[in-house]
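[scheduler] slot 2 assigned
[scheduler] job type: sequence-to-structure, two independent chains
[scheduler] chain ordering preserved from manifest
[runner] begin chain α
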Amino acid sequence: MDPSDQATGSPSEAKYSLDSPTTTLATQTHNASEASVNRLTVDRADGDDGGVSKTAHVSEDRPDGESLEPVHAEKPEADYAPASVPHTPRSGSVLVEETDEERIKSSEPRCFDRFQSSENTQKNKQPIHDNVGEAGVAKMHKFSLYETASRFYLVGGNVMDSHFRVLKIDRTSAPGHLSIFEDDLVYDKREIIELLNAVDDGNKATGGMKLKCSTWGLLGFIRFTEAYYMLLITKRRQVAMIGGHYIYQIDGTELVPLTTGSSSRFQRDRAPDEARFLGILNNLDLSRSFYFSYSYNVTRTLQHNIIREREAANAGEKHPNLDFNAMFVWNHFLLEPAEKTLRSPYDWCLPIIHGFIDQAALDVFGRCVYMTIIARRSRFFAGARFLKRGVNDLGYVANDVETEQIVSEMSTTSFHAPEPRLFSNPTYTSYIQHRGSIPLYWTQDNTGVSPKPDIDLNLIDPFYQAAALHFDNLFERYGPPIYVLNLIKARERTPRESKLLYEFQNAIEYLNQSLPEDRKIVYDAFDMSRASKTRGGDVIGTLETIAERIVDQTGFFHNGDVYYDTPRVQNGVARTNCIDCLDRTNAAQFVIGKKALARQLQALGVINGDVLEYDTDAVNIFTHMFHDHGDTIAIQYGGSHLVNTMATYRKLNHWHSHSRDMVESFKRYYHNSFLDSQRQEAYNLFLGNYTWVQGQPMLWDLTTDYYLHHANPRAWSQKGQRDYIKWFTPQNLET
């Protein structure tokens, strides 16, 4: 037990206060006939809908003033909503009063040594949610970060504002070391106030304890050349609700150095390098298209989450273990120090995904239907357009994005059916699609002035080992059948895209030789660009035919009542690509999604047939959502909005569309030529592809990041070569 943590004064007086610009704590003394009250006034920023008109997206600044001084001023909104109850986060000033009886304090000081804690403190060796109910509902979702001269104290509260835990972080550790202590005690509101007062008293000689900031979550820890940093969420915005679980977009973050604030902590010769690394990380805007949820696993599909919960319930498991998909956890590298140190890292840290989430409501004769689109971008082989093409040695492709559309009838919001029948609500459906670069070794050199550089096949592998790894991974994720829709050009005056057409087709034919007849990869090529420019060419009609064929083969997920019906599941996935996996791919995915949407609405009993006509309300809303989805994916990978949209392929463009397309093309060219390298460095640093090592080149000195994304040749040779014939994992072919 450190002396600075030991209280030196009596905690019987309510003397703890904070220096927060938005919080005022006043202790008033009345005569004997009146009760003493503590007033805590909180000023919060008004919610910002972010300009989204389809649903109420509420923006929330950092929860300043809602920290424990001495009580939470406002109960945080529930992250698990009751059935059929709409949720609107509150804003404005809140006044909370507390009587003397509620402020009675123990005469024994609180400390972080569990053996010196009073006997009435709850010792909780199990996850907190065992005390509340459904798994994940009671996870800590609001935090207050306090600082003393030598330590940070992160105080987290659960969703019911009834239990609190403490994480102690040393600010004086040796460079390169992260010292975190996770207190395994669970405190109630009165006990945590006593603890804060005690720590404040124990640090009076060095300035006491102050509130540094209040946050919505911890994203993890990162180190460059010296000390570690802690990354916190300071602003969030609600963008969707699924099964009563809220999903948020990150609108602001703060990087807190785990130092004493003295510049002497950094070696002088490394200070410029440290500053440059910070500048590179700042090029990654975490306030755009990063999402999280306190209680719903956004890294997995709805089908996976519900079936897993149902299987766990049938097996008698109260709370199945966490099952995050590491492929889509973008702060995976930042979570590693917490996973190595903490007993329950995900009680403190939030996995985040990168991509796109949107939700819209559709009213059909008084029945409310929610349409939700979730796009998850893979963190493997991630990067900018011309810098990340094709596939790497491990089978991961560039611009790998999983798109899920969830359609649910919101008569009840919960996943559960009445009685209750857990995870058996039959009003939830979903459909999944995949996009990704052509899984061959190919690149484009953008150092010249051409907006469309030549395509080079850098390596010809007669056994297509990288493509084999890629498709084996698709079988593992989605099962068979895999339907490949290749939209690149087939005929060109000067061959560019067509170079890849025949090589990709040869790869599929080679891989199919070893697959069982009913598990072969389905390959369909359609020169969408040529069809759109040909007089009388029916792009949409052709895509509609392909879409019906795809949805017939893969099916879609429809949750079923455990007592009356089993879930209908999706088996397999449509893998769509063009050369960039942007414009043409998004249009094709929209048509496939539109066909799936009709089947989903039919399964819910909203419509009778399985056909949705264009220009109806449902299709118009879905069109706008998918356009926003495509724009976001295009900005992340290509640096600009979509150049060709559904209006282009439906030939609905107005007179100004051509000029808009030219502007977007120029933006894409500018970003690819001048800004992509900066974004790529930020990706490599944040994702942990590059980590600083003494004596190794700095990130900005690398002439290429090839070896950051491809396997170490020595490690590759030690693993041995894969079987050229049986390239797949047999278990992945099972449905």
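[runner] end chain α
[runner] begin chain β
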Amino acid sequence: MVAANMTLGSEHNILGAYLIGSGFIAGISNLLGLMAFWWYPHVLCTPSAIPEVALLLSDLCVACIHPFSGFAAIKNEWVWGEYGCQLYGFFGFLFGNFQCLCVPFVAFDRFIESDAPPLLKKLRTKRIYARVFVLLFLLTFIWAVTPLPIIGWA
């Protein structure tokens, strides 16, 4: 039995336009956020800037891959080949997962800033935050490159 394509071409065009448009808007928004940190370097001197910049960068990278799926939706097929599919999945998982790790850390940083015990406030340094984010990125990278056929992806 052959699976029939049950979607209309107009649905793919709408979805593709949405993905391209949202990727463009998200990319511009994240670039503006990064430029704000660039224009006001005294803000970068705080430990809170590290998780915020990491979140902006990872969100920018996710926004940059939106047009690939948008163009594929308009074309009604994946046009980037097998290697493009692997890269798209790798970078989507890498930066999407890193975002999922950045958001709780931003919330944790806000807790430390506002209402944490003094012991936690002592740990709020740029050096410690930078090390934590390097470890978070390495953890995400290991999950992205490790073939795990037992779980379902490879």
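[runner] end chain β
[qc] chain β: The first helix runs from residue 9 to 39.
[scheduler] slot 2 released
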